[in-house]
Amino acid sequence: MRAQFVLSEIGVGLRRNLTMTFAVIVSVGLSLALFGGSLLMSDQVNQMKGYWYDKVNVSIFLCNKSDAESDPNCAKGAVTTEQKEQIKTDLDKMSVVDKVLYESQDQAYKHYKEQFGDSPLASSLTPDQMQESYRIKLKNPEQYQVIASAFNGRAGVQSVQDQKGILDNLFKLLGYLNGAALLVMIVMLFVALLLIINTVRVSAFSRRRETGIMRLVGASGFYIQAPFIMEAAVAGLIGGTIACTFLVLGQYFVIDHGVALSEKLQLINFVGWDAVLTKLPLILAASFLMPALAAFFALRKYLKV
Q1: pLDDT digit string (tens) for 51-92?
Q2: What is the pLDDT of residue 282?
Q3: 41 Cβ contact list (under 8 Å, min separation 6)
Q4: Is 12 exposed, middle or buried, given 0-12, 13-18 or 19+ CB atoms closer than 10 A?
Q5: What is the pLDDT of residue 242?
Q6: Higher pLDDT, 87 or 117
Q7: pLDDT value at residue 121
Q8: How far is it, in rounded angstroms, from Cα 98 to Cα 84?
């Protein structure tokens, strides 16, 4: 009987404050969708780091005849055969190096033509203007400075470049975007909490006569508070369900089908359904507990039971 009364009061409260209840549902749904999206973005960045950092190379570019005339780093002239052999020998001795590949001027020219063959500059380049290089795969991409300090400034070396630096800038940008999404989520979550508190206050005020009678007949504080708490929890849970729906639809239509980014951007290893499904219980739990706790503390102040 008591459970039936609580459930009936929940339905009455939700219908009586329909506009505010709808606002709570929408704000909770959007804020938790952003929360889930931020968690997935964080997983995506970590997965991309693991994928791309394993493939980055450190490149040692060697001086050619053109560099000897224009680049201060190549003031001693183009790289000699002895210098190339010494660089290769030193690289093979280094414990941080996993693999070393040599790229000749002809190979560099071929790769450039494949990538930028349509550019105006490509038609004026010749193989002898390209740079020979060593492409080094490190056991740990974080140890780039070991290579840089060993070979920067050496005779025959024009520059040492780390591809990881380019990726770091990309990941830093993604981190900023994720932080912006989290900031918006926090603002919307704060708005949702204010709406929940105001909804509970209005609901408690509109039923003050009923709660007064319940006090007079000896009803416990929890029994009086339960319908209000459950109203907020149910509204929040509906919002959480909407947020989960957004995430599932986003994964299905944006990543896997429809827009199908996973097919169009094959260079990016997108997170899968396992990452999405593990976030759904967390979102549903937050959508239930957050409004319930907000309503509980609001009632302590405004219901005075």
Answers
A1: 666 666 788 889 888 887 788 888 888 888 898 999 899 888
A2: 92
A3: 174, 177, 178, 181
A4: middle
A5: 94
A6: 87
A7: 64
A8: 19
Residue range 5-37, pLDDT digits in tens? 555 655 665 666 677 778 788 888 888 888 888
Q: Which residue has the tokens 């986003």?
A: 250
Better-scored residue on pLDDT, 16 or 99 = 99
| More confident position, 244 or 175 | 244
**CA 113, 114, 120, 126: dihedral to nearest 10 degrees?**
0
Question: CA–CA distance from 20 to each of 16, 17, 123, 235 (Å)?
Answer: 9, 6, 67, 10
User: What pLDDT score was predicted for residue 163?
Assistant: 73
Place of tokens 């009678």: 213
**DSSP character string of the chain:** -HHHHHHHHHHHHHHHTHHHHHHHHHHHHHHHHHHHHHHHHHHHHHHHHHHHHTT--EEEEEP-HHHHHH-GGGTT-SPPHHHHHHHHHHHHH-TTEEEEEEE-HHHHHHHHHHHHTTSGGGGG--GGGSPPEEEEEESSGGGHHHHHHHHTT-TTEEEEEEHHHHHHHHHHHHHHHHHHHHHHHHHHHHHHHHHHHHHHHHHHHHTHHHHHHHHHTT--HHHHHHHHHHHHHHHHHHHHHHHHHHHHHIIIIIIISTT-HHHH-TTS----HHHHHHHHHHHHHHHHHHHHHHHHHHHHHHT--
